[in-house]
Amino acid sequence: MELLKNAKRTLKDKLSLLKQYTDVSSQSTKVALQLLYEASTVGLISKELINSDLSFFECISFLKSISGWEPHHELKESSDELYKLQTELIETKNAQIELQEKISKTRIFEQHHNSHLGNMLERKARLNVIDLFDSSKELECPVCGTKSQDDETIKSLHYSLNSVREEIKTITHSSPKLQEYIQKLSSKENDTQIIIDDLQQKIRSLITQKKESKLLKDRNAYISKIIGRISLFLESVKETAPNSDLTAEIEELQHKVSILEDELDDDTVLDRLSSSLNIVGNYMSNYAKDLKLEYADNPYRLDISRLTVFADNPHGSTPMKRQGSAENWLGCHVITYLSLHKYFRMKDLPVPSIFVLDQPSQVHFPDITRYQSLEGELMQSGDADIEEVTRLFKLFYDYCQFDNRSFQIIVTEHANLEEDWFQDSLVEPPWRGERALIPKSWI
């Protein structure tokens, strides 16, 4: 079914493609001329070479010569470089701001410096009169000649005057250095402005270049569309030619779809299903006889619509749920699984060849105490339940030995039969006493 769906889908795509090519080639000359006119508008061919009198083959020749066009060299994208320049511009502007702040603060300091110098000069002018007195002699008034013994005052005034003079000298000495520092900062600020102007110019150039690149790219993209239509047209002329590969592929797909539809016809599918179920049912009936099931004399069959097992008889069909004991239910499941896997093996179908059962003999021992008491002890024949268990395991053994040798049946079980074939099939000695998944000594 999946093969048919895939084949139909592929056929539909190929037919659609063929229709597209056919539609193009049906107006081949008209379409070829139209493509040539479009190519002439973008300079791919001279307009003087095109006229309505051109034959189809002349148009094809021109189109083939155009189809080898390659895009013009595009300007290199400068996104990374532009980003670097913009980042550098921001950093340079930040550096300029820092310089401007330093200059501003230095000039404020200069103003305070000059103001302080003025104050010192004014103070010096007031103290200059102290030079009228000789500090080494007694204090004598220069007007009246009166003498005084208070020479400490004179000395203090002379000391203050000298201090003022020294401070004025220091301030006067530092002023040129301050001016030099301001000029140095201003020079750096001017150099930074030059760098900023240069970066801005480069950024503007890159932006202009990017716009030009986009225009060139758009033009190349438009021409590429025209070239694409020309290539499609040239391919359609080739593909729709007699005995083309596309036509051959379509014919092959149509034949394949026809075969698959015949194979998957409703009547065919039903016939094949009925045949398969009859074969499986025949296997089931034989295995039912091996197990001596209650309805073993009747043919068994698997009903896939109701997913159950029936035993047919002259009075009707008995479904599994009405076939009595749990032994029969177990038997129906076992014969169904084994029969299906035998059929899968015969058809070489990819179904895992494994069957796992847990304690299937338990249905033959309704008394759970009696069942658990086995604990791997050898079971002596003679008991009816033990004989039924023996038939079940013998069926498993024969199935793997003769009917389906690549099949594996794994059984976890308390039962331990004394037959050699059973003992040879054990993977390991029975678990009992201290030999267990959880030894009694651990409990």
Describe it.
It is flat and about 160 Å long. The model is unreliable at 73-78 (pLDDT under 50). A 3-stranded antiparallel sheet has the order 3-4-5. A two-stranded antiparallel ribbon has the order 1-2. The chain has a two-stranded parallel ribbon with strand order 6-8. 14% of the residues are buried. With 443 residues, it is mostly helical. Helix 3 packs antiparallel against helix 5. The protein contains 11 helices and 9 strands. The protein folds into 3 domains: 2-72 and 236-257; 79-211, Orthogonal Bundle (Helix Hairpins); 266-442, 3-Layer(aba) Sandwich (Rossmann fold), CATH 3.40.50.300. The longest helix is centred in the middle third of the chain and has 89 residues, at 151-239. 65% of the residues lie in helices and 7% in strands. It has helices spanning 2-26, 28-41, 56-66, 79-127, 151-239, 245-263, 266-291, 326-347, 368-372, 384-403, 420-425, and strands spanning 139-140, 147-148, 300-303, 308-313, 316-319, 354-358, 378-379, 408-412, 416-417. Residues 182-216, 243-270 form a coiled coil. Pfam families: DUF3732. This is DUF3732 domain-containing protein. Keywords: Coiled coil. InterPro entries: DUF3732.
Distance between the termini: 58 Å
CATH-defined superfamily of the largest domain = P-loop containing nucleotide triphosphate hydrolases
Q: Kindly give the count of domains.
A: 3
CATH fold name of the largest domain: Rossmann fold
Main β-sheet, in a few words?
3 strands, antiparallel
SSE-based structural type: mainly alpha
Q: If helices are DSSP runs of H or I spanning 4 or more residues, what is the number of helices?
A: 11
Please count the beta strands (DSSP E, at least 2 residues each).
9
List the uncertain runs. Answer: 73-78
Q: How much helix, percentage-wise, in residues?
A: 55-70%
CATH class of the largest domain: Alpha Beta
Just name the CATH architecture of the largest domain. Answer: 3-Layer(aba) Sandwich
Give the H and E element order.
HHHHEEHHHEEEHEHEHEEH
- The dominant shape is flat
Name the strands of the widest sheet in spatial order.
3-4-5
* Range of strand content: 5-15%
* Mean of pLDDT: 76
Rg result: 56 Å
